[in-house]
Amino acid sequence: MLHAIRNNKAGRNFQDAVNWRSLFGASEDSLTSSVFGHLFYLPASLLWEVLCKGAYNLELPCQSPPEIISYEFWPRWDATHTANTYSVEPDVFVRTSEFDLIIEAKRHDYGQQNPKQWRDQVQAYLNEYGCEKNVLLLAVGGIDHGDEQPTRLTFPGRTILVYKCRWRTLLGALRTAQQQLPPDTPHLIHLLKDLIAAFGLHGYATNDWLATMPGSELTRLRQGNGLQTLLSKSSQF
Question: What superkingdom does the record give (predicted)?
Fold first, then answer.
């Protein structure tokens, strides 16, 4: 499906034509499922290496990379003692042999996360699963400037750490992993290629010369005609 959308093939045979590329590119849920749906296919060692390098200060509560037991997108949990009425729905829930991981994703990299939502998600997790395992929360995207350090959420008898990650830092970790893969691992090379393509579909720069450009400069170029000029020049090489 990813390649059909990228190449404007999705929806062509339906009576009501829809620009799927525009719809998916603007969607938080599409970005989350496209990226994490592929990430979970990676070997445990590579998966946690990418997440730890992509997140700020992420430390796993175990010595070796744990295997994933299960993962679920948008589970619905008991909303007791939360601000929600019926249920609480984190974006992704991952169970490993050593700990559980809640992932709350936002579409953009700055200014969308809400600590009250983190607290409600942890409370709903405790409603569902109790306190038997360590649990972490990873906030992906929506991080305010200067708020990269972990946040501590205190509950009766325990403290939960919220780690933070921007999509662009996760993309950078994936690009680094791609460059370091040995040539005799074609399956991993293809997986990382598709992962990076998913970022491109959602508007993230995946070319080397764009990925290294400061975000403010890239924004300025996009708002004017500078980006189009640069793209035209790059096509000449």
Answer: Bacteria
